[in-house]
Amino acid sequence: STMEETDREAVATAVQRVAGMLQRPDQLDKVEQYRRREARKKASVEARLKVQFNKPECCQVMSITLNLTGNEELRKNHLHIMFREVAGNHLIYIESKLCCKIFKSGLSHHQTQSVCFFFFFAFLSVPEIVRETQDLIERGELLQAHRKLMDLECSRDNLMYEQYRMDSKNTHDMNLIHTYFGDMQKLSEELAKQLWMVVQRSLVTVRRDPTLLVSVVRIIEREEKIDRRMLDRKKQTGFIPPGRPKKWKEKMFNILERTVSTRIEGTQADTRESDKMWLVRHLEIIRKYVLDDLLVAKTLLDQCFPTHYDIFNKLLNMYHQALSTRMQELAAEDLEANEIVSLLTWVLNTYKSTEMMGNSELSPEVDVNSLNPLISQNVVDQLLSKYMSTLTSNIIGWLRKALETDKKDWIKETEPEADQDGYYQTTLPAIVFQMFEQNLQVAAQINEDLKTKVLLLCLQQMNSFLTRYKDEAQLYKEEHLKNRQYPQCYVQYMIAVINNCQTFKESIISLKRKYLKIEMEDTLSSSHTSMDATLDIIAKEGCSSLLDEVFMDLEPHLNELMTKKWLMGSNAVGTICVTVEDYFNDFAKIKKPYKKTMTIEAHRRVVVEYIRAIMLKRISFKNAEERKEGAERMIKEAEQFRFLFKKLAAGSGEDTEGLCDIIEAIAEVIKLTDPSLLYLEVSTLVSKYPDIRDDHIAALLTVRGDASRDMKQTIIETLDQGPSQPNPNYVPIFKEITVPTLTVPKLLK
């Protein structure tokens, strides 16, 4: 425009003149002389201008223009700028010529006003104030910068208002004013940018430079007042300046909200791929940041804002909302079981605990009871449901893996570990129950209901697992029987399997005691009974398979009993006792309840096999001498067995007498010298052991060797009518013993 060109021309000429006056060092001494000379020239030009300004139309325009500037102080200021800050008398001279031109141009009164507005603000050097404001912004002197910006805006707004009042439809002139003050709009945006940077970092700034934050808040408050004033004027006049209302307070809260969201989202440093504990870390960083931020907001930030801003509660709501959004995002991810637990524990417990919102330093402003849930109950239920199904498949997998690992140990060439009491064991029960414990502790962090559900799940899976354990132990035994040299430590690992049953029983009781409420006991009683029964079967079958080992080794020696060789003085029973004792040195590593059962069972089986040997009719005594010798040997061997099993059962309180008595009672029948008393002796035997069958008696009389077929017949028939007087503690033993009827099977063997 002509105005800007004139401006530039005047300034350029002024600079050239001053430069020309100060080309040599000695000219510096004459600065005062030059200044006085320029002042005289300036006064002369001013006098000429005064003549023009005294004309009526000029006075009128000046009056309107000055009135538009708003207040007395500003008017003086603008006049001061007009006559003191122009670039030397060249500028005034050129501008005075322009002024004269305007007045001579014959414009209408209204047009003259419009041109004069521009003319007047050229004097005011808007660009100069803009530059100064820009410098202040760059230096961070935001309050002063804002003061100048307000002055500029006030001038522009009043000009526009005056223009609007004179001719509201003249958009051309309105746009001219708007364009002229265009740089001012950029200044406002630049200042706002600085304010928002401070707001974004308000929690840091408030610790380092609270005055800066207070300045920002004061600027926002000033703008809010101007907004209100402008909106009031709009109601009255319909006019509002461009860019109003600025709504900087609202923007400030929006920026705080975005900052809080970014702060929460930005705490996820890792992913599952880079760190399995990514979620735990993420949640812990959030907890720490939020607590720290809110403590700073309460103690420091609150003091930098007017009370009506209610800054702490606003921030508290922002954090709660941002957390809620973040937790919902996390809940929607494909979380693993442990991650679901971490999330739920944090959401349901940590958030309201003393480690976070329940922190005593946040009280009473933060009331945890009035905080809304971070995620809805529906989402919580979905997560719990997913957790339970994931946990179920995990537990099945863990149990299967644990059993596979344990089975690998069973074929090792080294003995299993022993516990502190010397009992063999494997790590299986410890691994299984440690896994259960971990999951129960985790579930307990969330709530009581989940803990109970997880316990039920663990015990339900334990039930299925024990059935597999039983099957595997059976397969282990079957594989061993194919080749008894392998595995090398079969006996020791079978003992460990038996002992594990006892450990499992104790662990189930302990787990229930620790994690199950008494009122829930009934819900588990049936599954507990079922597990105990399975464990008893595993232990019993294990003990039985170990005794099978013993008796497979005893077989050749048992086959010697009741033979000619035996009668002539074989040491079969001595070898039997040594072998049993040797095995029981290993069996000492079996835990008490099962060891006691083992000893009783071994004792019983030895006696059964001995009686079976008698019933096999491998020998038939030829005379009284042989009968006496055989019977005495039987009594002596019964005593050897009695001594052995007394020793093995030491301290177990087991009654081992009764079984060996049976051998002695049979020996008495064989030893008898008077055949007429045979019936009486046999009937005594039958009354004590009522499960003796006719074929047993027939076999016994055959071994005795002196009873005719008729005598056998008579004794057996008479016995059928006799009363029985068994010992109340007697456990039938003869029913297990079969008597061979023909010798054909023997031949086939």
Outline the structure in words.
The protein is mainly α and 749 residues long. The protein contains 30 helices and two strands. It is rod-shaped.
Provide a concise account of the structure shown.
The protein has 749 residues and is mainly alpha-helical. Helices cover 74% and strands 1% of the residues.
Helix/strand-derived category reads mainly alpha
DSSP strand tally: 2
Share of residues in strands:
under 5%
| Widest sheet: strand ordering | 1-2
Question: Taking Cα atoms only, what radius of gyration do you get, to the nearest Å?
Answer: 55 Å
Poorly predicted ranges: 52-82, 84-107, 744-749
Number of helices: 30
Whole-number average pLDDT?
84
Helix content: over 70%
So what's the overall shape? rod-shaped
The largest β sheet comes out as: 2 strands, antiparallel
N-to-C terminal Cα separation, in Å? 131 Å
**Subunit organisation of the chains:** single chain
